[in-house]
Amino acid sequence: MKSNKTVSIRKQLIGWLMIPITSLCLVSAVVTYFIAVRMTTQGYDAALMESARELANRATLQDGNIVLDLPPAALAVFKDDNIDKFYYAAFGENCRLIAGDADVLQALNPAAASQPRFRNGRLHRSPIRIACYNAAVSGAPNRHVRIFVAETVRKRQALTNQILIAVIVPQLLLIGLASLSVWLGVARGLAPLQAVRSAIASRSQFDLSPMAELNPPLEIRPLVNAINDLLGRLNRDIEAQRRFVANAAHQLRTPLAGLKTQTELGLRQENFSELRGILNQIQRGAANLTRLVNQLLSLAQLEPSGAQSSLVRTRIDLNAIVKEATRDMVPYALSNDIDLGFEESQKPAFVIANAWSIRELVTNLIDNAVRYTQSGGKVTVRIESADPVTLVVEDNGPGIPESERERVFERFYRVLGNNVNGSGLGLAIVKEIVLSHQGRVSIESGIGGKGTLLLVTFPPAEMSFKPPADKSINVATSPLSAPASRVN
Ligand SMILES: Nc1ncnc2c1ncn2[C@@H]1O[C@H](COP(=O)(O)OP(=O)(O)O)[C@@H](O)[C@H]1O
Ligand SMILES: [Mg+2]
Q1: What is the pLDDT of residues 353-376, one digit of tens each?
Q2: Fewest CB atoms less than 10 Å from the CB: which of 78, 172, 273, 380?
Q3: pLDDT in the model for residue 380
Q4: Does the domain at residues 221-302 carry the CATH identifier 1.10.287.130?
Q5: If you measure from the C-alpha of residue 460 to the centroid of ligand 2, how many angstroms do you get, rounded to a whole number?
Q6: Can you tell me whether residue 425 is helix, strand or coil?
Q7: Mutation test residue for ligand 1: of 378, 414, 433, the one with most atoms within 8 Å of CB
Q8: Domain 311-458 belongs to what architecture?
Q9: What is the pLDDT of residues 189-206, one digit of tens each?
Q10: CATH 3.30.565.10 in the chain, residue ranges
């Protein structure tokens, strides 16, 4: 499911940057703290052990008893400084207390065979560090003393705290500075987007020229280029629409003016048979206008943005649909004294197509062939089922000069030099339909270089294609039509 929550680039960037930076600072602070604690501990422990060793050196043998030679002046060297308190206890064999504060070391078990060199303890609710040192009595190598010294840990804590602060404060500053520079950097970085936004907002809807005044940074350039590209396409499309409307209006104006003149003439006419003649002309004019309007509607419907996208395509046999369309044109051909024939293919010619479009295409091609071929001429509509499937409309009329064969597909383009009525839209419609079916259309000369051959090819229908459930289009070849038979 698509979330419609508005995303903030700034928040995302700060998140992406701050999460790793903060985690990194946190890890680094923890690691630094432990290293600092270890290093301070090691230093102070060494000093503590040194005190124990010096006390042990003062153990001597007097009358067979071990004593600690510790005059007050010497003890002052070990005793408390201003910050930490110092404690000691010396034991001889059998855990006999020789000197020191036995009670303050009550937490210890001096009799235990093995003692850790250092340990932590608590005294008077203050944490202490304890060191233990075993040594031989000087001058009596087989007599032993065990010295315990302890001190409170205020100095150690103060030093680790100082180190910690020294590490954390710059890191907090770094995090703060990084957030600030991301905040400001994003504002600065997004400023060109603001410029694009105001450039678009302040534009008139009639100004479709590219946004040239902006000089966007590299990252925003593709967006501006895409907008400019869209503006260009819109401009061309609107220009084409404008030309089309102007042409269409022009095309409608001429026959309408004719109709108006003839109506005025008719109104003044008293003679009934003359009036009838005029009415006939009005009828022909109206028929031409109807055809023109229908062609305009067809073109509008075939526009990519028009109803064309909703024109359903199915797998159809071209034979059936073209034959039907040809049959509908027979009366028109007969009225122009043209022999209109249909030749279907040996095998079904399946294509994926929209039936309405195909009928429109065939009607326009036959209309042209009949319209431009002299009376007594012949028009043949043929389907070839080979790959690609081909529709041919052939006539033995005047033909289209090679130089005009591209241009006749343009809207409103007509070849001058004949007296035939027309709008120049027929082949434009044909081309739209062919393109929308991914087909091709070309004009060739008929047999012996005479007449016109209009060739339309379609990509063959995929074998895997399954027609939809409602078979609105009759895909079977009509049994009425034998191959190469003429319809009229
Ligand atoms: N079968 C044909 N034989 C000769 N000329 C043709 C034929 N089909 C089309 N043309 C030429 O191509 C031009 C464009 O045709 P089309 O787009 O149908 O417009 P229209 O028929 O309204 O003039 C016509 O004016 C005509 O000169
Ligand atoms: Mg035409």
Answers
A1: 999 999 999 999 999 999 999 999
A2: 273
A3: 97
A4: yes
A5: 27
A6: coil
A7: 414
A8: 2-Layer Sandwich (3.30)
A9: 888 888 889 988 999 988
A10: 311-458
